[in-house]
Specification:
The protein has 255 residues and is α/β, with parallel strands linked by helices. It has helices at 4-28, 32-65, 82-101, 115-118, 138-147, 188-196, 219-232, 235-242; strands at 69-73, 107-111, 132-133, 154-157, 173-177, 200-201. Helix 3 (82-101) runs parallel beside helix 7 and helix 7 (219-232) packs antiparallel against helix 8 (235-242). Keywords: Methyltransferase, S-adenosyl-L-methionine, Transferase.
């Protein structure tokens, strides 16, 4: 029985092999002149794709240089099982990918990162990520800001908060609790915000959709909702576009 990763690798190998076989069959039918033209066009196509990728990376870098931060707080490791930590790792990878693709992105910030737990350094290119990844905790940073008489820009996102968010304030840094716990730990993000002494707000999903269960959603879904809110200023559109179908009771959303 192949693992998910092995299955993906096998499918890629089969796809690449089939593509190569089709190319070889095509070449066998060509005259020398046609083959020369084909090779030239193939060379130009590959160079164009390389240049397109280079331009895309530069464009993403330019966008992120001006983007507001979105922070993932990894202060909950002791509350999660190894499989939940693995899920959170994937959600952080998706969030980073979203930050690169968005027209008006949020730049990923990760606090209290521990590579022994999340092993993201094993990912190719991780050392070159355009993100703010730190082993320091929010506790340390916020304490330092207060001791220096500086404003604390952080606001914690929690489904249990009383205050509802309606717009994206680019002068603030919104925090997503890095916790995957199947809703075992009630009020975890709200309690964390209170410990840090910072405000908390919630995305009121029930305002826009009838949910099957709680308002707890994955880290990457929150990251994407906030990114879209930053892009167009429309919370309803952001929620309905991102909210997974499995969370919604029926196809009709609240008006």
């Amino acid at each position: 029985m192949l693992s998910w990763k092995e299955q993906r690798q096998l499918e890629k190998y089969q796809k690449d092999t089939a593509k190569l076989e089709r190319r070889q069959l095509l070449i066998q039918t060509m005259t020398p002149q046609e083959l020369l033209k084909y090779d030239q066009e193939h060379f130009e196509y590959k160079n164009a794709k390389i240049e397109e990728k280079r331009n895309h990376k530069q464009l993403s870098k330019n966008r992120l240089s001006k983007a507001p931060f979105m922070c993932i707080d990894l202060a909950y490791n002791a509350l999660m099982t190894p499989s939940e930590i693995k899920s959170l790792r994937l959600q952080m990878l998706i969030s980073y990918s979203l930050s690169l693709k968005a027209l008006k992105p949020c730049k990923l910030m990760i606090k209290q990162y521990n590579n022994d737990i999340y092993t993201m350094s094993a990912i190719e290119g991780f050392s070159n990520w355009d993100a703010d990844i730190s082993q320091n905790s929010l506790d340390e940073e916020i304490k330092g800001l207060r001791e220096n008489g500086q404003d604390v820009p952080y606001i914690y996102l929690s489904g249990d908060a009383e205050t509802e968010i309606s717009s994206f304030d680019v002068s603030k840094i919104y925090i997503i609790g890095g916790l995957v716990d199947r809703n075992r730990h009630k009020n975890a993000a709200l309690n964390r915000a209170n410990e840090l002494g910072i405000p908390s707000v919630k995305i009121n999903l029930k305002q826009f959709a009838q949910l099957k269960s709680s308002q707890i959603i994955a880290v990457n879904h929150i990251f994407e909702m906030m990114t879209k809110l930053n892009e167009n200023g429309d919370l309803k559109e952001a929620v309905l576009e991102v909210l997974p179908g499995r969370k919604v009771e029926n196809a009709e959303v609240k008006q």
